[in-house]
């Protein structure tokens, strides 16, 4: 295997990992509406947890749809 290909493969994995973590942090922040959990009331915290779960499910569906479209585009 070419060293350039090996480096690109490792870099792609690392970048994907960082992008994934960034998306998760952004979803968490959006579900909390920018507040820290310590500053929230118990009701707000429960609502944030519910919306966080819904946002993560929506993101998962979007990734699945993206993969399906990529597969369909190959044909």
Main traits of this protein?
mainly alpha; 75 residues; single chain; elongated
Account of the 3D structure:
The protein has one domain. The protein has helices at 3-31, 42-73. The chain has 75 residues and is mainly α. Helix content is 81%, strand content 0%. The mean pLDDT is 83. The chain is elongated.
**Overall pLDDT:** 83
Let me know the largest β-sheet: none
Radius of gyration, whole Å = 18 Å
Content-based structural category: mainly alpha
- H/E topology pattern: HH
State the low-pLDDT regions, or none.
none
How many E-type strands? 0
The total count of helices amounts to: 2
What would the principal axes of the Cα set say about the shape?
A: elongated
Number of domains: 1
Proportion of residues in helical segments: over 70%
Distance between the termini: 28 Å
- Percent range for β-strand residues: under 5%
Compose a concise summary of this entry.
By secondary structure, this protein is mainly α. The protein has two helices and no strands. It is elongated, with a radius of gyration of 18 Å.
